[in-house]
């Protein structure tokens, strides 16, 4: 069973980025993630449905007052329970 006090503290999405060049990078309290891939565009927000997919294009991670842009990447992602994991494939 989850601790509701911990769940209430998390006000956004937890993001983990992983690649061989930079290792693991994590961001807390992300408001939304915008994925612009070859064949689709999607915005993932808090409490969004579970997803798994591949991206060939751009990803923007938005926090309050900050936008992290990842341009021209190829990778795989999963979003579940307000946790977004992106595995970036090195070119």
Mean pLDDT: 91
Q: Flag low-confidence runs.
A: 1-7
| Overall radius of gyration | 13 Å
Shape call: globular
Count of DSSP strands? 6
* CATH arch. level architecture: Sandwich
CATH top level label: Mainly Beta
CATH superfamily, please? F0F1 ATP synthase delta/epsilon subunit, N-terminal
Major β-sheet annotation: 5 strands, mixed, barrel
What fraction of residues sit in β-strands?
over 45%
Kindly, what is the distance between the CA atoms of the first and last residues, rounded to a whole number of angstroms?
Answer: 41 Å
Strand neighbour order, sheet with most strands: 1-2-4-5-6
CATH topology, which one? ATP Synthase, domain 1
Give the ordered list of helices and strands: HEEEEEE
Q: How much helicity do the residues have?
A: under 10%
Number of domains: 1
Give your account of this protein's structure:
- The chain is mostly beta strands and 91 residues long.
- It has one domain (15-89): ATP Synthase, domain 1, CATH 2.60.15.10.
- It is built from 1 helix and 6 strands.
- It has one helix spanning 4-9; strands at 13-19, 23-37, 41-45, 51-63, 66-80, 83-89.
- Strands 1-2-4-5-6 form a 5-stranded mixed beta barrel.
- A hairpin with a 3-residue loop joins strand 1 and strand 2 (23-37).
- The longest helix is centred in the first third of the chain and has 6 residues, at 4-9.
- Mean pLDDT is 91; it is low at 1-7.
